[in-house]
From TrEMBL:
GO biological process: negative regulation of complement activation, alternative pathway; negative regulation of interleukin-2 production; negative regulation of macrophage activation; negative regulation of T cell proliferation
Residues covered by the Ig-like domain: 1-102
Name of this chain's protein: VSIG4 protein
GO MF annotations in UniProt: complement component C3b binding
Database matches in Gene3D superfamilies: Immunoglobulins
InterPro entries xrefs: Ig-like_dom, Ig-like_dom_sf, Ig-like_fold, Ig_V-set, VSIG4
Xref: PANTHER family: V-SET AND IMMUNOGLOBULIN DOMAIN CONTAINING 4, V-SET AND IMMUNOGLOBULIN DOMAIN-CONTAINING PROTEIN 4
SUPFAM superfamilies according to UniProt: Immunoglobulin (SSF48726)
Length: 119
């Protein structure tokens, strides 16, 4: 996914909600410079933004089952990295199922429009 500096981008993470499976935990983490940090976590106690530099800049749709996409606003150059969405479901027989999807984000500065030179 390409994002424009100071713009916003959505990192896709969707699934088909199915009978008998309850979403337990949803988390988004970012990996850069070989260290991974969790940005966002949704569980029984609500939504938590765990990295202060993403506070007020990230959100995940609340009332759309199956959509766990992450919206990042006011992109900064250091936001480039590998973002992983991890969803854990509990089934009726209490087993846990985990799925992950990773999206690479590259933040670019847009070039100013070329001004035509009149000779």
């Amino acid at each position: 996914v390409k994002g424009t500096w100071m713009g916003s981008t959505t990192l896709p993470c969707t699934y088909e909600p199915s009978e008998g499976f309850t979403e337990q935990t949803l988390s988004w983490s970012v990996e850069r410079d070989s260290s991974t940090s969790t940005i966002f976590r949704r569980d029984d106690s609500g939504d938590h933004i765990l990295l202060s530099k993403f506070r007020d800049r990230v959100s995940v749709p609340k009332h759309t089952p199956g959509n766990a996409s992450l919206l990042i606003e006011t992109l900064e150059m250091p936001d480039s990295g590998h973002y992983t969405c991890q969803v854990i479901w509990r089934s009726k027989n209490n087993s846990l199922i985990t799925r992950e999807v990773t999206t690479t984000v590259k933040v670019v500065k847009e070039h100013p429009p070329c001004s035509a030179v009149h000779l």
